[in-house]
Input
Amino acid sequence: MEELTRRVRTFAEERDWQQFHTPKNLAMALTGEVGELVAELQWLTPEQSASVMSDPDSGARIKAEIGDVMIYLTRLADVLGIDLMEAALTKLADSALRYPVEQARGSAAKR
Ligand SMILES: [Mg+2]
Output
């Protein structure tokens, strides 16, 4: 995670793109990339979406968009001074408390 953060930061610095990497712009870019990911899946049936990676072309596009999302999320967290891994692990721990296995297993109900 730290290596990715460093490499994305260096990529931006080498191009003097830090000036464009405001939290607002990065959040918007992230949203755009999530939209591109969703666009790859939006007209598929649930069954087609579940097997999308078995088609090499579709799989490559999904993988590329996942990569874009990860890059912008990583960069946004870096600019905001957020430890992305720590933030995710904290949220996962919160969710584990909110959705105890014995109450939540097999249920999609929101709490
Ligand atoms: Mg993209």
Observations:
- The chain has a mean pLDDT of 96.
